[in-house]
Write a structure and sequence with these properties.
Bound molecules: ligand LARABZUK
CATH topology of the largest domain: TIM Barrel
Number of strands: 13
Shape: globular
Strand order of the largest sheet: 12-11-10-9-8-5-13
Helix content: 40-55%
Largest sheet: 7 strands, parallel
Radius of gyration: 23 Å
Number of helices: 15
Distance between the termini: 68 Å
Structural class: alpha/beta
């Protein structure tokens, strides 16, 4: 049992953090009948090693079955611990509870009752819960080992941070990350005639340093296919994979598809996950953009070793409210100095992607033409 705990506890991002309320409930109501979520093997018991001493005194290791129920309880304990760690860091976004809403039967009908513990509280939480299930499904189809093999054929990573710096030196303006985004939960469809490659090429002509490509299908109508199409079309701007990362598997996947950088959201990921994922990114040659929204998140992220890029999102992802004074507030003073030292860049989506010529939208944004060959 100890071995299982340490395995899950030392690989935090690969596990979920079940919600306290619903898990408490499921321990009393559901545990005895539910299938195990992810720790246990498909059989009704799992295996752990037991040391057996033979007559001649030599020791051998033999497998002994661990009851599935014990594994569920262990998973619950680890989940509780991870929830508490996240909450202690001010993270309000909960992870999807391992069990769905409890089942109730009335005559021949089956009901799942919704309650605070098993219903997402806001859109970001809904996206994250959806990702938890989506990634679990994708991982089953393409396990990490297979994905690692695919990396051998991936196009080489390009210097995302270098491209931002170069653009800044060339224009004297913050490097621009222009977003290739068809839709968003707050705004709905942004562009009906959405051609990701044409938009990317237009941004490149307009002087964008890098591009951010939405890959989430359900909420943003994006895809990894878009990312691959843009990369394979020969667009030189390095590409940020704009995803909702909950699991290190997604980082390998993004790299396999040709991404040069990936987004990590401080409102979702505890410090240890950010640190661990940043290390994986470095190993794979990806840059990490860590997105923050308030002082608490900035203070956490600044202290994490190896963070090179911090993005300030002026949109509250729980309420959708946009308030540009957030950036102003966060880059002021001593705290702001530490961010300014890392260089300033801007990530813009809606206002330029909606223009008939998105590349020309960049000139409008900066009030001057910053394309590589201005006329
Ligand atoms: O934009 C949303 O509705 C949204 C909802 C929930 C999570 C994330 C969301 N947006 C992602 C972004 O943060 C934006 O794509 C990015 O900041 C660019 O914003 P904009 O320039 O306003 O398009």
């Amino acid at each position: 049992m100890e071995a299982l705990v340490s395995l899950r506890a030392t690989v935090p991002s690969l596990t979920h953090r079940p919600n306290k309320l619903s898990v408490r409930k499921s321990i009393s109501m559901d545990l005895p009948t539910r299938n195990s979520v992810s720790v246990a093997s498909s059989s009704s018991s799992s295996i752990r090693a037991q040391q057996i001493e033979s007559k001649d005194g030599s020791a051998t290791v033999a497998p002994v079955p661990v009851p599935e129920e014990a594994l569920k309880v262990k998973e619950w304990e680890v989940g509780m611990f991870q929830n508490e760690v996240a909450a202690s860091q001010g993270i309000r976004i909960r992870r999807r509870p391992p069990t769905g809403p409890p089942l109730h039967y009335v005559g021949p009908f089956e009901f799942r009752l919704q309650n605070e513990g098993n219903t997402p509280r806001n859109i970001l939480e809904e996206i994250i819960w959806h990702k938890d299930t989506e990634v679990a499904r994708l991982r089953e189809r393409r396990p990490l080992l297979a994905l690692k093999k695919e990396l051998e054929n991936a196009p080489p990573p390009r210097d995302f941070i270098g491209a931002l710096r170069e653009a800044n030196l060339r224009t004297g303006l913050p490097g621009l990350i222009a977003e290739v985004k068809k839709a968003s939960p707050s705004r709905g469809i942004l562009r009906e005639d959405f051609n990701p490659v044409e938009i990317a090429q237009s941004y490149e002509r307009g002087g964008a340093a890098c591009l951010s490509v939405l890959t989430d299908e359900k909420f943003f109508k994006g895809s990894f296919e878009n990312l691959e199409l843009i990369r394979n079309a020969g667009v030189k701007c390095p590409l940020l994979c704009k995803e909702f990362v909950v699991d290190a598997w997604q980082i390998y996947n993004a790299r396999a598809k040709g991404a040069d950088a990936i987004l990590l959201i401080a409102a979702v990921l505890p410090d240890l996950d950010i640190k661990y994922m940043t290390k994986i990114c470095k190993m794979l040659g990806l840059a990490t953009l860590v997105e923050v929204h308030n002082e608490r998140e900035i203070d956490r992220v600044i202290e994490i070793e190896g963070i090179e890029l911090i993005g300030i999102n002026n949109r509250n992802l729980e309420t959708f409210e946009v308030d540009i004074s957030i950036t102003k507030r966060l880059i002021e003073g001593e705290r702001g100095q530490r961010i300014r030292d890392k260089g300033i860049m801007v990530l813009v989506g809606e206002s330029i992607v909606k223009q008939s010529d998105p590349g020309k939208g960049i000139a409008g944004l900066f009030g001057k033409d910053i394309s590589l060959s201005p006329n």
